[in-house]
Design a protein that fits this description.
Blueprint (H helix, E strand, L loop, with lengths): L3 E9 L3 E3 L21 H7 L2 E5 H10 L8 E5 L10 H4 L2 E4 L3 H10 L4 E5 L1 H9 L5 E7 L7 E2 L11 E7 L5 E6 L3
Parallel strand pairs: 1-6, 1-7, 3-4, 3-6, 4-5
Antiparallel strand pairs: 2-8, 7-10, 9-10
The structure holds NADP nicotinamide-adenine-dinucleotide phosphate.
């Protein structure tokens, strides 16, 4: 099976994944319907590797408990060095300085099968290089006006194939798209 790269992310209806200061509490302010995880568990079980942008990595480290036990995790950063990683996660992640085409080739050569790409700028870099196969975006019914955007300008049009859209009782709307590489 060829390597696949997927995005699974939540965004405000106006396209932001966090407030400008990184605040993501608004993502969980609207309660989920009982026993609903929006497909996250099944998606997460399907990936063997995560690529996190440094911004997202720092958010996750702030959670305290490491949520990616058992998965290979690569942090994408031009500024982080393995020696400067917090000690509690240093043995759990690898740091890659990019470019993302090199990282994708390294992951493929080392046997990765399904990669979860996370973080706004990181997703944008993978999209710009035509490296994303599947995009799952959950729209939160909230306009936050400004913040860290999910998408940027890839410098060209990117055509997506809509696969399905599900709406949930709490107003979340999740769409799945495939992108021909
Ligand atoms: N709504 C959600 O579901 C969701 C999901 C994930 C994250 N978030 C939030 O989004 C925010 C982070 O987003 P973000 O846009 O800052 O993106 P990010 O991709 O998490 O982090 C950006 C950093 O990643 C590194 N990077 C990105 N592209 C690179 C490339 N091509 N080559 C080398 N390094 C690269 C750079 O690190 P250096 O500056 O170190 O070089 C860059 O500053 C956080 O607040 C996080 O909590 C929300």
């Amino acid at each position: 099976m060829p390597i696949r790269f997927s995005v699974y992310i939540a965004a405000s209806l106006d396209g932001y994944i966090a407030r400008a200061d990184g605040d993501i509490r608004w993502l969980t302010e609207i309660p989920a319907p009982p026993d609903e995880d929006f497909g996250y568990h099944d998606f997460f079980e399907s990936v063997d590797t995560l690529v996190l942008g440094r911004g997202t990595f720092e958010t996750v480290v702030g959670f305290g408990a490491w949520p990616y036990e058992g998965k290979r995790v690569v942090v994408l950063s031009r500024t982080l060095h393995p020696g400067s990683l917090p000690s509690e996660v240093a043995s759990r992640v690898e740091v890659h300085h990019g470019p993302v085409q090199n990282l994708a080739a390294i992951l493929e050569a080392s046997g990765a099968g399904h990669v979860y790409v996370d973080g706004g700028l990181t997703i944008q870099a993978f999209l710009a290089e035509g490296l994303i196969d599947t995009l799952i975006v959950t729209r939160i019914p909230l306009l936050i006006g400004s913040g860290i955007p999910l998408f940027g300008d890839p410098g060209r049009d990117i055509r997506l194939r809509h696969v399905e859209t599900r709406s949930y009782l709490n107003g979340f709307v999740q769409s799945r798209y495939e992108i021909q590489r």
